Amino acid sequence: DDAAGQAAFDAIIAQDSRIEPRDWMPEGYRKTLVRQVSQHAHSEIIGMQPEANWITRAPSLKRKAILMAKVQDEAGHGLYLYSAAETLGTPRDKMTEDLIAGKARYSSIFNYPTRTWADMGAIGWLVDGAAIANQVPLCRASYGPYGRAMVRICKEESFHQRQGFEILLELASGTEAQKQMAQDSINRWYAPALMMFGPPDDDSPNSRQSMAWNIKRFSNDELRQRFVGMIYEQVKVLGLTLPDDQIRFNEETGKWEHGPLDWNEFKEVLAGRGPCNAQRLARRREAHEDGAWVREAAAAYAAKQARKTE
Ligand code: 3HC
């Protein structure tokens, strides 16, 4: 019954152990996991679009092959995470319908345009770098299927981050125009990448409960400042700069500090009024409609197979 279930759940959380799909769990725990895991899955799927924009225009066969592999990885991450969300009792069709109807959130970062080839570098280095900073702690999330999905996803993300850094390194050591293109891209992607970590802690309604349930291990600001410290060092290797002259390490607090972020822009993007929100949803809707015949054929085939075994 619920009292025994709640006691067992509380004990598992207190021991920092894993909750598995068949364990009793409070409705709020299930709800916040469906919310976060489905949004994470949507982010991976929508995140394919900004990069796909450059697959046909990659500067070499090598770069084209690497970018295709990365975008295919993102698709796999999305399917992995939809499967994790399904273990919580949410049908995949429902999650897809919500996304297509514009009722589901996905990461703010994918509502920005990819204007130049250098953006493939900045996305790999900054966006996948931020995703790694956020996802490594999620490998220890208390919900088993989510934490385990993160382990494999993080391994692939490190390839994504490295290939992005290498693109920027090549451009930064190329012609003056290539170096400028890389710097311009970092200038455009730096702040949106920092906002991927979520709103400031004092404006993060889900954090307290999510941390109490060992889903979120570190606060939004904690992970954001760690990430700033990482890229502050890495950008020196590129011989380029970050568009923020207020970055400094505060010896007393032991935290990195950075310039202000535009949380109004963040709220606009979350409200669906970012630079690319409409186009991202339209493209996702179109892909779903174009794929209807595949789903119908697969369902008809499965039904035929099932009749054979009756
Ligand atoms: N984009 C869109 N919505 C965001 C957001 C962002 N960057 N950051 C926060 N939000 C939303 C939250 O979903 C919440 O809204 P909701 O209650 O309607 O869901 C609201 O803003 C308040 O934020 P909170 O801090 O209270 O919410 P959370 O506790 O859920 O923290 C989070 C936000 C840190 C993003 C957390 O949800 C999380 O860790 N999610 C998993 C990570 C994820 O989604 N990563 C996607 C990155 S892209 C990616 O991985 C692809 C890469 O391979 C390129």
Automatic annotation (TrEMBL):
Gene3D superfamilies listed in its UniProt record: 1.20.1260.10
Coiled coil: none
Keyword Oxidoreductase: yes
EC number: 1.14.13.149
Name listed for the protein in its UniProt record: 1,2-phenylacetyl-CoA epoxidase subunit A
Species assigned in the record: Arthrobacter caoxuetaonis
NCBIfam families (alphabetical): PA_CoA_Oxy1
UniProt-listed GO biological process terms: phenylacetate catabolic process
Sorted UniProt keywords: Oxidoreductase
One of the Pfam families matching this protein, by short name: PaaA_PaaC
EC class of the enzyme, as a word: oxidoreductase
InterPro entries (UniProt xref): Aromatic_CoA_ox/epox, Ferritin-like, Ferritin-like_SF, PaaA, PaaA_PaaC
